[in-house]
Amino acid sequence: MPIKYRLEVVGERASDWRRSRNFAQELRYNLAEKYLGTTSNPGAMTTELLVTFRTKQRHGEALQLLRQLMSKHLMENEINVVLVQP
Fold first, then answer.
1. Angle between helix 17-33 and helix 59-72 axes, rounded to 10 deg
2. For the chain, what is the domain count?
3. Are 32 and 62 in contact (CB under 8 A)?
4. Burial level of 5, CB count in 10 A (0-12/13-18/19+)?
5. The domain spanning residue 16 has which CATH number?
6. pLDDT digits 0-9 by tens, 33-76
7. Is the pTM of this model over 0.85?
8. Alpha-carbon distances of 19 from 6, 22, 26, 43, 76, rounded to whole Å
9. φ/ψ of residue 61, rounded to 5
10. The pLDDT value given to residue 14
């Protein structure tokens, strides 16, 4: 069963949409490459991105990947990760 999250870019850097899109594109690529999930269109991202993790069994691995990329892009404190209830 898929698990969905909404990533919300907040703070002063929320207006830096190029940086947000770079993060979103890399996240989408890595999720697809590892067959962990997908995202909404990263090219259209401004301050929100929807992320879908494919299965509950690999949920921890997908969250770890998300956190690693947030750290790599120096966005740990600028992204709120919100679980979307079905």
1. 150
2. 1
3. no
4. buried
5. 3.30.70
6. 999 999 999 999 889 999 999 999 999 999 999 999 999 999 99
7. yes
8. 17, 5, 11, 11, 13
9. -65, -40
10. 82
